[in-house]
Amino acid sequence: MSKSVSKTKRDKLIRENKSILSFFKSTNESDNSIIEKGEQKTPSEVDTTVVPLTDTMVSLPQPRRNVNNLWTNVGTNNECPKHKWLMNTPFTVDAFRYGLIKGCSGYFLTHFHHDHYIGLTSKFVGTIYCSEITAKLLEKNFGQLLSIVALPTDIFINVSGFDILLLDANHCPGSVLILCRLPTGNVNLHTGDFRAQASMLKPPSPLTEFILSKQRISNLYLDTSFCAPKYTFPLQESVIDAAIQISREALITHPGALILCGMYTIGKERFVLDIYSVPFFT
């Protein structure tokens, strides 16, 4: 059967990709609330007002656990490599395989894929910072004992004196880029795993300020898994449209055929939902 994409389908590629996060409801869409250890704080307790990059931030409530006195199992075998640290901060990113890390007061998790949270157990006592969706996935899989601070996206929050902004990474539900502004004015950007698209650098994305102004990102931690000329991937929309066309042709030829979609924990939701939404028989 043909796997080509028709002109009509190709014309649809001009559409911007939907955000993966659009398929999942936030913890509380009406008040930008923050969840810590499974308890929801109200706006009166936590101010999460959207502000420009140049404004000062409100402080996030301190984690309930004092992890600074818990470095009892740190040894040379689990020394955290330099690239796992956000430069000049007490934060590490996706570094759970190293256990408790001396000097680290905040463990950021970019998204809930095993290769990024590997090493994490229900007994981990460090404070984890992540998106609201990732926080729910952590609690579902590891229980309620983890010390989790769930941060909203697109809003700056001050964490231990550092301004933190989470942005949709367009990778899987809950995946985020981490933008960290230091008191010195320097800015770190950690992409985690992400799917780049033009809208990430267009208004209203905060990243546009690094294009339209003299402000620059000081340190970039970049996902380069496929950053080589030999990799040429089609747009996600074209892959979905091709899958829809192949499925339609298969069902016309074999009306009783069962369409199976290969899945893992999370990350294929957009693909499945888009195929499911198509009325194959009209």
Q: Give the class-level CATH name of the largest domain.
A: Alpha Beta
Considering DSSP H and I runs of 4 or more, what fraction of the residues is helical? 10-25%
Termini distance?
Answer: 21 Å
Report the oligomer: single chain
How is the CATH topology of the largest domain named?
A: Metallo-beta-lactamase, Chain A
Structural class: alpha/beta
- Look at the structure and give the mean pLDDT: 78
In which order are the strands of the major sheet placed? 2-1-6-5-4-3
State Rg.
Answer: 21 Å
Name the poorly predicted regions: 1-7, 9-51, 64-76
| CATH architecture title of the largest domain | 4-Layer Sandwich
DSSP, total strands: 11
**What form results from the Cα inertia axes?**
globular
Q: How can the largest sheet be summarized? A: 6 strands, mixed
Give a verbal description of the structure.
It comes from Hymenolepis diminuta. One of its GO terms (biological process) is interstrand cross-link repair. One of its GO terms (molecular function) is 5'-3' DNA exonuclease activity. The structure is a single chain. The strands form two sheets. Strands 2-1-6-5-4-3 form a six-stranded mixed β-sheet. Mean pLDDT is 78; it is low at 1-7, 9-51 and 64-76. The chain starts with 6 loop residues before the first helix and ends in a 6-residue tail after the last helix. The protein is globular. It is an alpha/beta fold and 282 residues long. The protein has helices at 7-11, 114-117, 132-142, 209-212, 236-253, 269-276, and strands at 34-36, 39-41, 91-93, 106-108, 127-131, 147-151, 157-159, 162-168, 176-181, 187-190, 219-221. It has six helices and eleven strands.
